[in-house]
Amino acid sequence: MKVLVVVDVQNDFIDGALGTKEAEAVVPRVAEKIRNFDGIVLFTRDTHEEDYLETQEGKNLPVVHCIRGTKGWELNPEIQALCKEKPIDKPAFASQELGNRLRILDEEYRSRAMGGLESVTFAGLCTDICVISNAMIAKAFIPEVPIIVDSACCAGVTPQSHENALEAMKMCQIICE
C-alpha cells in the first residue's frame, strides 16, 4: 500500500500571511496528485492558538498564521474538497502523530502478510520547513519504507530554500522526484 501525505496546503501558506506565488502555483498540481493517487491519503494542518507570538516558533517567526478556526488555518477549498478524513493538526513543524500513524499502518500491512507500506510520498507546503520536517519524521518512524518527495507538488518559502531542502533530504536518503 502506498501513502500520500499532503502537508499544510492551507490558505495562510498560499495567499495569506505567508503566501507565495510558488505556493499558489502548486495547489492545482497537488489536487491532481490527490485525485490520481492509488492509496491512502493523509493531510496535515499547521495549527496554532491565539498565544502563537508567545511560543518559541512565534518568537522566531513573528508572523501570526494558521490560528485554529480562522480562514487562514483552513485547507485550500480545492484540497479540502478532496480530504476524506480529519487532517492531523500539528502544533509544530513536524508531527509525531503522523509518524505514529505511518508506523501503525506499516505494522498493520506487515501483520497481514502484505509486506508493509510500499512507499510514503510527500507533497505540500513549505518544502523547507514542514515538508522536510515531516519527511524526516517518517524516515525515523519507518526507516525501511521509501520516503519520496514530489518536488513539483511542493513550494518553499523561497525557490532557493525549496531547492536547498530538496538537496538536504536527498542526503538523508529521501527520494526527491
Would you give an account of this structure?
With 177 residues, this protein is α/β, with parallel strands linked by helices. It has helices spanning 11-14, 21-36, 56-60, 77-80, 96-111, 127-141, 159-171; strands spanning 2-7, 40-46, 88-90, 119-125, 147-155, 175-176. A 6-stranded parallel sheet has the order 3-2-1-4-5-6. The longest helix is centred in the N-terminal third of the chain and has 16 residues, at 21-36. The mean pLDDT is 97.
Give a topology summary.
Elements: E1 2-7, H1 11-14, H2 21-36, E2 40-46, H3 56-60, H4 77-80, E3 88-90, H5 96-111, E4 119-125, H6 127-141, E5 147-155, H7 159-171, E6 175-176
Parallel strand pairs: 1-2, 1-4, 2-3, 4-5, 5-6
Helix pairs in contact: 5-6, 6-7
Order of helix and strand elements from N to C terminus = EHHEHHEHEHEHE
Mean pLDDT: 97
Helical residue percent? 40-55%
Q: How much beta, percentage-wise?
A: 15-25%
Summary?
The protein has 177 residues and is of the alpha/beta class. The protein is 41% helix and 19% strand.
Which structural traits does this protein have?
alpha/beta; 177 residues; globular; 7 helices
